[in-house]
Amino acid sequence: VRRTSTDNELTYAHRPELLWVAKEAAFKALSHQSPNLLLPDLECVDWDSHNENTLWTFRINSQKTLDLSRNLGFIFSDEEHLFSIYYQ
Questions:
Q1: Chunked mean pLDDT (size 10), the chain, 88 residues
Q2: DSSP string, 9-77
Q3: What pairing do the DSSP bridges indicate for beta strands 72-77 and 42-50?
Q4: How many Cβ atoms from other residues are within 10 Å of residue 3's Cβ?
Q5: What is the pLDDT, as a whole number, of residue 44?
Q6: DSSP per position, 54-67
Q7: pTM for the complete prediction?
Q8: What is the DSSP letter of 8?
Q9: Whole-angstrom Cα distance, residue 83 to residue 24?
Q10: Where is 82: in which H helix or E strand?
Q11: What span, in angstroms and rounded, lies between the C-alpha atoms of 81 and 70?
């Protein structure tokens, strides 16, 4: 997580594992637009917690030219796993 994230991302994501699943979901959704896209090219911003921290939302910033028209990601969890969905 440290290699692929900024200090701001690490601060605002609240937990490193949230940041990792967010970046992974966004990368998978956006990498078809830019074959040279790397995880550090994506910055997770606008974190918000819902339902007593069982649902998180985030958005992506990037210096790369990407279609970010919807630009909304969700992270949710059960007792053992984190899941993330990103809508470009």
A1: 93 92 96 92 94 88 91 92 93
A2: HHHHTSSHHHHHHHHHHHHHHHTTT-TT--GGGEEEEEEEEETTTTEEEEEEEESS----SS-EEEEEE
A3: unpaired
A4: 6
A5: 97
A6: TEEEEEEEESS---
A7: 0.90
A8: H
A9: 10
A10: strand 82-87
A11: 25
The structure tokens listed for 45 are 């911003």
* Residue position matching structure tokens 């030219």: 65
The b/e string for 15-44 (b: 16+ C-beta within 10 A; e otherwise) is: eeebbbbbbbbbbebbbeeeeebeeebbbb
Tokens for 36, please give them. 């040279």
The tokens of 75 are what? 């992270």
Strands 82-87 and 55-62: unpaired
- From the list 68, 65, 83, the residue with the least C-alpha distance to 24 is 83
